[in-house]
Amino acid sequence: MNTAVLFITLFACMAIGMPVAVSLGLSSLLTIFFFSQDSLASMSIKLFETSEHYTLLAIPFFVLAGNLMSTGGVAKRMVRFAIAAVGHMRGGLAIASILACMLFAAVSGSSPATVVAIGSIVIAGMLKNGYTKEFAAGVICNAGTLGILIPPSIVMVVYAAVTEVSVGRMFMAGVVPGLMLGLMLMAAVWWRAGKLQLTPPPKASLGEVLRALVDSFWGLALLVIIMGGIYGGIFTPTEAAAVSAVYAMFIAVFVYKDLKLSDLPHVFLESSKTTVMLMFIVANALLFAHVLTTERIPQTIAEQILAVGMEPWMFLLVVNVLLLIAGNFMEPTGIILILAPILFPIGTALGIDPIHLGIIMVVNMEIGMVTPPVGLNLFVTSGVTGMNLMQVTKAALPWLSVLLIFLVMVTYIPFISLGLPNYVFGP
Amino acid sequence: MKILDHFEEWAMSLMLLAMTTLAFMQVVRRYMFSTGYPWTLEVTMICFACMIFLGISYGVRVGAHIGVDALVNLMSPVTRRYVSILAVVLSLVYVSFILAGSWTYVSKMMEVGIEFDDLPLERWKVLIVMPIGYAMVALRFAQLLWALLTGSATSLRLADEAADALKMKVEEAKS
Question: 10 Å Cβ neighbour count for B161?
C-alpha cells in the first residue's frame, strides 16, 4: 500500500510535468504523512543534510571544471593530438574522434558536453574528408556517451552518494569498461570504413605528433592530476575535483587564453545553475531514499524476488530492461537517483557487487542518451550537425548495437568492472 | 523584483567561487605546508548549502529544473495549460510543506542555540537559508502560476540541457 502511494504519486507528478525534484519530494512527504510518524521538521532537515554530504561536494567542482574546459581550447588541442596519433589509419579521422572523445571524457564528467566539445570540431573535418554525414554523426553521438563512463563522472558521484559506496572505487571501475567501449567503437569504425571510399590524411611525422602532444600537455596533465591524485591516495575525489576546477580556470585564462577574466562570472553562474539543479534533485532523492528505507520497500521486493527463486542473472536482465526503458524517458541523474536506492539493496541481497551494479547502470544510461525521445546526445548531435532528430537517430542506430553488445558483456562479466578496483584497493 | 533577480545570481556565483577557493586552499595548505584550518570544511559546506537553497528559486525562474515533458507536449495547448496549473499548485503544496517544516526546525534551533562543531556560530544562523530559500521558491512558483492563469505562459518551463550545451557553444563562437 505505502509502496503504491509512493510510486503512483511520484509518476503522476512527473507525468503532469512537475520538476523531477519536486515530484520526488512531494511523493515522499505524502507517503510519510500517511504511513509514518516522522515530523515535517525532521523531513525538511533531511534536505539540508544533503549539503553536508562530503561526496556530493565534488559535484560543483566537477561541473565548474567541465564548463571551463568545454568553452576552452582544451578540446581543440586534444583533437589535434588524436589526429596526429591515429589519423592515418583506415577510418582514421573517425577513430581519432573517438580517441578525442575518450581523452575529453577523462577530464569532463558529462556526456552531452563531450559531444559538443569534440563533435563541433571533428564533424566538419570528417565531412571534408569524404565521410558521410550519417557516419560522422553516428560515431560522435555514441562516442560522446563515454563522458559518463570514463571517470570523472558526475553520474557516478551521484550513484556513490545514494548507495554510499566509495567514489574512488566507482571511478576506478569505470576505467577498463571505458577503454574497452572506446576500442570496440574504434574497431567497428575500422571495419565499416572499409566500405567508404576514403583517403586518410597522410601519416603525421613524429615531430608533429610530439608537437601536438606538447601543445595538449596542459589539458592531458589534468587527467594525470585527477586519476593519479585519486588513485595514488593523494586526494579524495572531492579534493581532486576542487584542484581540477582551479587548474582548469588557470589554463583557460592564463595558458590557452581562450577565456577572458570578464567571461568568468558567466561561467560561474552557469556552473552554479547546473549544480543547484542537480543538487535539488539529489536532496529530494535522498528524502525519497529515506522513505524507501524506513518503509522497508526494497527489502520487501528483495524478499519476494528471493522467494520466487529469481537468479542473479535474471535479476540483472530485468534491471537492464527496466533501465533501458527508463532511459528513453528521463535523463541519467534522475534515473540513478530514483532507481539506485531500490535496486541496490535487492542486488546486495542477491550477492551482486554494488560497484558492478553501478557500472551496469551507467552503461544503460549511456544507451539512454542515444535513444529517443529523451536522448540528450541525439539532441546535441542534431544541433551540432544541423540534421533533424530522426536522421540523427537513424545514424546512431548501427553504432548503438556496439553499445548493446558491450552492455551484455559488462552485465555478465563482472571482472571487466571489478578487476581494476579490486586489484588497486583490494577486494 | 530586479534586485531579487540579481541577488539570486550573485549569491550563487559568489558561493561557488568561495567554495572553490576554500577547498583549493585547504588542499594546498594540507599537502604543501601540512597545516590547515579545521573550520575550512564546515565553511565550505555552509557555502554549498547557501548556494543550493538560494539558487533553487533562480532555477524556477529561468526554467533550469529537469522534468519529463514528453506527455505534456502531446496535449492540446488548452489542456496543457490546465495540467500545468495543477502541476504548479502541487509544487506550491510541496514548497509550503518544506517551508513550514524547516521553519519549525530553525525556530527550535534558535531556542536551543547549538553551535557548529568547529565554528563559534549558532547553527540556526545558517539553517535559516532553507526557509528563506523556499520562501523565494514559493514566490517564483506563484509568479509562474499567475503567468499561467493570465495566459502569458502555457506550460512549466523545464530545462533543455541539450539546448543549454549548444547555447554555450554559440556564445563562444560569437566572442
Answer: 19
Chain A residue nearest residue B55, CA to CA: A276
> Is residue A362 a contact partner of residue A155, using CB atoms and an 8 Å limit?
yes
CB atoms within 10 A of CB B148: 22
- What is the amino acid identity at position A328? N
Rounded (10°) angle between helices B77-112 and A20-35: 60
Cα distances from A235 to residues A68, A400, A402, in angstroms, run 21, 36, 35
Q: What is the pLDDT of residues A336-367, one digit of tens each?
A: 999 999 999 999 999 999 999 999 999 999 99
Which tens digit of pLDDT belongs to each residue from A175-204? 999 999 999 999 999 998 877 777 777 788
Please give the span between the terminal C-alpha atoms of chain A, in angstroms, as a whole number: 39
A181 CA to centre of own chain? 13
Tell me how long chain B is. 175
A19 backbone dihedrals φ, ψ, rounded to 5°: -55, 145
Contacts of residue A371, defined as CB under 8 A and 6 or more positions apart, other chains included, come to A324, A327, A328, A378, A393, A400
> Is A329 within 8 Å of B51 when comparing Cβ atoms?
no
pLDDT, tens only, A58-115: 999 999 998 888 775 888 889 999 999 998 888 889 999 999 999 999 888 888 888 8
In angstroms, the CA A194 to CA A203 distance is 18
Residue of B48, B91, B105 lying closest to A41 (CB–CB): B105
User: Are A171 and A426 in contact, with CB atoms under 8 Å apart?
Assistant: no
Residues of B in contact with A50 (CB under 8 A): 52
Distance CA B168, CA B175 (A): 11
What is the interface pTM, i.e. ipTM, of the complex?
0.91
- Worst-scoring range by mean pLDDT, A201-210, A278-287, B137-146? A201-210
